[in-house]
Prior knowledge:
By secondary structure, the protein is mainly β. It has 3 domains: 64-185, Immunoglobulin-like; 188-330, Immunoglobulin-like; 339-461, Copper amine oxidase-like, N-terminal domain (Copper Amine Oxidase, Chain A, domain 1, 2-Layer Sandwich), CATH 3.30.457. It is built from 2 helices and 41 strands. A 6-stranded mixed sheet has the order 4-14-13-7-10-9, with no helix packed on it. It is rod-shaped and about 150 Å long. The relative contact order is 0.10.
Amino acid sequence: MTGNGTRTLEFPITTASTTAGSIIITTNVDIGADVEAGDLKVTVSGNKLTTTEITIGEVGDLTLDAEVEGDVPTVIAGQADQDIADFTIKEGAAGSLVAGRTINAELPNNVDWNTVPGGDGLTVTDTTAGDEKVRFTIAAATAARTDFEQENMTIDVPENFVGDVEIELSGTAGLEKKIVVAKAIAPVKAESTPVDLKLGTLSQAAGDIIITENAAGALMDAAGNETLQLSCPNGISFAKLPTIEVTSGDLELDADTLDFVAGTDKADVCIDVDNSSDVASTIKVSGIVYNIDRTVPEGPISLNIGGDGLDAVGAVSDEVVSVNNANLITSINLGDKASASFVIGSATYNANGVEKTMDVAPYVKDGRTFLPVRYVADALGVTEDNIIWDANAQTVTLLKGDKVAQMKIGSKALLVNGVTINMDVAAELNSGRTMLPFRFIAQALGATVGWDEATQTVSMDL
């Protein structure tokens, strides 16, 4: 044989055969750096031999690749231990993976690994549950080109992450690639038709809200006490508990648990999730009534929707999604004026130049002038539905702008925005009306007062 170290080997035939036979050639080849990957072929030719091209091997390159197997699953933001697609790390040639070298698999920011089984020639190192990055170490070099299958891996997805879940592969093994292993969706969407509200006004009805699960089981009940929570923005609170009900699907909420969240001053409400859905469900939130502080800026009012029923990953969020169900478009004009006058013993009073009639007249008792609270409040611009009488508690509550005033029959305590003002006389009933010295009524509503001794007339200006 001649030609060792060249591209051509020559085998001289020194003795003719007497019977049919074969020649077996065993050899090794050196592959140059410029040889392209693919089939390694040789051409066989010679005297009395038909020239033939045969494949004797495959030229591979010492590179690595990664491919996702099958369909990419959908995962839900805010949920833990969710399956991702299996993927395979492929060698370009035997020995592409060198023993001791590493492959890092890094998830997007705040998306964490939950289960990483490893195996199939790769050892999991340098990771703990809750990390974004996992490292595989190659256990041993391969004798033949090998595909390393990574299966049954799960992740935790934060409540605010939506879109492609992409793994970035890197490390000392030389693999540099990004692969998409899941698509994350928001757990719910929320819709509303916003209504216009006024700044600094109490008990205003906002738009109903429709909350729709984007997938079955989006609202979780894993621990048996997960909640759906609704949270108002700063300066706004609920005047009363809204109604929360499932209108389609098989989600179950526990209506008996609907309540204000402790420590939020009625800015947050929550309800327990009894059973998560097998069919994506819809929730209607109605009867939303806001108290709005005068410090709230004009513009959209967005209610935040969250709770641990929508967030099983990390700290529970009160804002998984938000929805605009009201617009604050009109401020209180502090220059608006109101004036009223009342005459002792007369059932006629004047409100902003208009004469009106009462069913009880002002009177003097123990040197103090008593006026009917309802008619004074009406004259100073308190609307009918913001004059609230509680027969059981024997209290009258007045709501005017950012002021809440309350008085109780038989009590000398006047509450204004939760602050007690001590009066020298108690509120009393006369002809079914709550009567109070006019100076205290004016103080509660922020009005100035005047007294005309000659005409026995009380005047008030706001």
